[in-house]
Amino acid sequence: MATEYTRDFVGPIPALIAATDPANLRTWPIRDRRPLKQWGSGRATIIGDAAHPTSPYAAYGAGMAVEDGYFLGRRLAGVDLADHQQVRTALDEFEAPRRPHTARQSQTAFVLGKVSHYTPKPLRPLRDAMLNHTPLLQKAVGEATPGEILDQIAEVDRAEAAFTTRPIS
After folding, report:
1. Which SUPFAM superfamilies match (predicted)?
2. Among 24, 44, 108, 151, which is least packed, fewest CB within 10 Å?
3. Do 58 and 145 touch, CB atoms closer than 8 A?
4. C-alpha to C-alpha distances, 30 to 27, 49, 50, 61, 132, nearest whole angstrom
5. d(CA 118, CA 124)
6. 77 — alpha (psi -120 to 50), left (phi > 0) or beta?
């Protein structure tokens, strides 16, 4: 079965897979999920892949998890954790700017994965020609993603400014 999926691979990969006992072969299909409308409820929230699982095709999933941790920490800093309403407000303030950004990045990764791995074989030369000889990929990813990341850096600046000017309780 595995050799059926890898017969078009280059190099020694098909031969290595064919020589491997099928009992030792595993596949881990990548699953995609639509963005959640809300990450938390009450005093709890989720972050990283639990909130916005991102396929590896944009190479940004771990980075977004780190960003989540930073922004969550900044929003909760100085909050009375015994005050349920303060915690919920801080969590809502954390989630609101993160959801659109992470959804956009996860969707970009999803599309890149589909284009890379699910283009029908007869259309692959056309796909490759478009990606290699037009600015499509640069426009869709190369120019949009840095802007998104710069927006997140600006969010860090805003979070730091708010944190350093917040009165200590």
Report:
1. FAD/NAD(P)-binding domain
2. 24
3. yes
4. 9, 13, 14, 13, 26
5. 9
6. beta
Rounded alpha-carbon distances, angstroms, from residue 120 to 123, 125, 128, 129: 5, 10, 12, 14
Quote the pTM value. Answer: 0.73
pLDDT tens, 43-57?
999 999 999 999 888
Residues 92-140: tens digit of each pLDDT: 999 999 999 999 889 888 988 888 888 899 999 999 998 888 888 777 7
Tokens matching residue 9: 């691979």
Helices (H), ranges, 77-135: 84-117, 124-133
* Beta carbons within 8 Å of 67's beta carbon, 6+ residues apart: 98, 152
Positive or negative, the CA dihedral 46, 48, 52, 53 is negative
Percentage of the chain lying above the pLDDT 70 cut: 96
Contact 17, 2 (CB under 8 A): yes
Cα angle 111, 117, 120 (rounded to 5 degrees) comes to: 105
